[in-house]
Design goal:
By secondary structure, the protein is an all-alpha fold. It has eleven helices and no strands. The chain folds into two domains: 58 residues, no CATH class; 179 residues, no CATH class.
């Protein structure tokens, strides 16, 4: 690697440019600029070592150049993150709707019961769908923001959970317990998916529901423990893990 390659590599690695296409464009422009500086120095009769020192002086400190790029592309980087987060949350919510709807349909067929009560309560079901997707995605967001610190990685999930508690307490005060328990179950499931012990995260989805059931009694009328909810949240967490993996391949690696 030449001295020009080292300068270019340092700037690109520090600049946090949004996307591979943008990184390639900036790298090409910087390489042309560096080559021009080097050629100008050599045309004045300087040897390669002296020309390299002149290029470094004229180009400036790579960290300062990278900081300038960070500032210039900050709005674009923020816009991309908002768009990507919206896509992830939307796809995750749709996946949860499909999973929970399928689980409820199978349960209705197996027990020869009607889906009418579930459809009648669809407005409350929406809160549950959103809670599961939010619980999982908020913890994933914390992992992305603070990969080296688990306590800090929990902050987005805890903060969003408190916000949902206020919103649900205002909109559905009599039925806020179930979606909040589902939120916590999904976040707990994501947390334990990080542990290299097969199926341990099954307990992560069950524990918050078990605690809520022990403290507040049946969360669903007629059910001692909400087994159907636990199964739906668990399958949802499995589906969401695959969605997150696809999301990382499609977007996160492109922004690394």
């Amino acid at each position: 690697m030449t001295h020009l390659d080292r300068i270019l590599s340092q700037v690109i690695s520090l600049a946090k440019l949004p996307g591979n296409r943008r990184r390639n464009e900036v790298a090409k422009e910087l390489r042309t600029h560096l080559d021009d500086l080097a050629e100008d120095a050599r045309s004045q009769g300087y040897d390669d070592d002296t020309a390299a020192r002149i290029v470094r002086m004229r180009f400036g400190d790579p960290e300062e150049v990278a900081a300038a790029f960070i500032s210039v592309y900050k709005p674009e980087r923020l816009a991309r993150r908002i768009l990507q987060s919206t896509i992830l949350m939307t796809v995750s919510t749709v996946a949860v709707v499909v999973v929970i709807g399928t689980v409820q349909s199978i349960a209705a067929v197996c027990t020869a019961s009607s889906m009418v009560p579930t459809l009648r309560d669809i407005s409350r079901e929406v809160f549950g769908f959103t809670a599961i997707a939010s619980g999982y995605c908020s913890l994933y967001a914390g992992e992305r923001l603070f990969p080296a610190s688990l306590p800090r990685a929990l902050l987005p999930s805890v903060s969003f959970g408190l916000l949902l508690a206020v919103v649900f307490g205002w909109l559905i005060p009599q039925h806020a317990g179930m979606p909040l328990a589902a939120f916590t179950s999904a976040a707990s499931g994501r947390l334990l998916q990080r542990v290299e012990i097969p199926f341990l995260w099954f307990a992560g989805t069950a524990l918050p529901l078990l605690i809520a059931w022990a403290l507040f009694g049946p969360l669903i009328p007629g059910w001692e423990f909400p087994w159907l909810v636990w199964f739906g949240v668990t399958v949802s967490c499995k589906a969401l893990r695959e969605i997150v993996r696809l999301f990382e391949r499609a977007f996160v690696e492109d922004c690394a």
